[in-house]
Design goal:
With 369 residues, the chain is α+β, with helices and mostly antiparallel strands. 27% of the residues lie in helices and 24% in strands. The longest helix is centred in the C-terminal third of the chain and has 29 residues.
């Protein structure tokens, strides 16, 4: 390896360097592996009462549910859960299981005097992993969504988040390399926490083709560059894996993908500010995956704001909006940064898969730990 620096971050991470560093958020995974299945669902569960939510969709082939409800002009202001799932549009059925679980818990948008009269609004987005386990019809359903919600509810607040081949990342692939789930966080000087969870499954690549380094690490200028011989061998292995995958049952279809993410903060953002956070976080995705937002992708970023930390108030130069803008800009920049790191961590945590649906080597298989 050629060392171009040591990986240091100017701001500290949260205790877990994970989405659950934002107080009140829990993450649950459920997956199906074997017997032709290689897919799963991830649920991000908020505290009771929900969180302010927004979404920004930039891929050309999105599979989403209830994203219109997150428009700042619309009625529902808070959501109790966000679902990320495999299975393409079929996998959106997993959100029904999460809705049922929330309804049973009396959590959702109140529509009547009885506490049981709630309508849980559960935004969801799906990535394409159909056939990667060998069986085209092996996909998440409502039962798997419920499993993921229950798994999230069982965790303690501030629990670690499993990464790699779990949940919605179980069947994820990026540029022929095994993708997965990754998460990261940062604590700003104000004490505000900003965190991200990414499910990396892109038509583009996370690997810079000339060197084999990860784009997401190169953008920081601090990365070990693989030796040229190791890089050539890795590219040959990857090419052979793609050829073998093309021969197998279900992986010869046109590659369709989608990277999904949730970016969250404990700051008190309104719907419009949360929407801006979701949008600028896509910049972090663009640093780590190239090309990005293609017609084959359905790249979707959700934003959640729990509201525990008010934005600053006051009058600067006679304009009370300026302190708020400065604090919000810090959060927006951090959202992009943590999403880049979440993508890198997803790829480094992923394990290679060799099954009926194809051969998908991990980055560590190709380049070492």
């Amino acid at each position: 390896m050629t060392d171009t620096g040591s990986a240091q971050h100017p701001l500290p991470t949260g205790p877990l360097d994970a989405l659950t560093d934002v107080p009140g958020l829990r993450v649950g995974h459920a997956q199906r592996v074997g017997d032709g299945a290689l897919t799963g669902t991830t649920v991000v569960l908020t505290g009771e009462g929900g969180a302010t939510a927004a979404v920004d969709v930039r891929g050309g082939g999105p599979g989403t549910k209830e994203t219109d409800a997150l428009d700042p002009r619309n009625l529902v202001q808070h959501v109790e859960a966000v679902v990320l799932s495999g299975g393409s549009a079929f996998g959106l059925a997993s959100a029904s299981g999460v809705m049922a679980w929330l309804e049973e818990a009396g959590r959702g948008f109140r529509v009547g005097p009885d506490p049981a009269q709630v309508v849980p609004v559960v935004p969801a987005a799906a990535l394409f992993d159909l056939g990667r386990g060998g069986d085209w019809r092996a996909r998440p359903d409502a039962g798997l969504g419920r499993e993921a919600a229950e798994a999230a509810a069982r965790t303690d607040v501030g629990a670690p988040v499993a990464q790699g081949n779990v949940g919605a990342g179980t069947g994820a692939v990026v540029g022929g390399v095994k993708g997965g789930v990754g998460t990261a966080s940062v604590v700003l000087p104000s004490g505000t926490t900003v965190a991200a969870l990414a499910v990396v499954n892109a038509a583009g690549s996370v690997v810079e083709p000339r060197t084999g380094a990860l784009y997401g690490q190169l953008c920081e200028g601090l990365v070990e560059i693989p030796e040229p011989g190791r890089h050539r061998a890795a590219q040959e292995t990857l090419a052979a894996a793609r050829q073998e995958s093309a021969k197998r049952q279900a992986s010869s279809v046109q590659p369709l993908n989608t990277t999904l993410a949730v970016v969250a903060t404990d700051a008190a953002l309104n719907r419009a500010q949360a929407h801006k956070l979701a949008g600028t976080a896509h910049d972090g995705l663009a640093r780590a995956v190239r090309p990005v937002h293609l017609l084959n992708d359905g790249d979707t970023v959700f934003a959640l704001a729990t509201g525990d930390r008010p934005l600053p108030e006051g009058d600067l130069f006679g304009n009370p909006a300026l302190p708020v803008a400065g604090a919000l800009n810090e959060i927006l920049a951090a959202g992009a940064d943590v999403l880049t790191r979440a993508v890198v961590k997803a790829v480094l945590a992923a394990k290679g898969v060799d099954g009926e649906g194809g051969v998908f080597p991990s980055y560590s298989d190709l380049y070492g730990d």
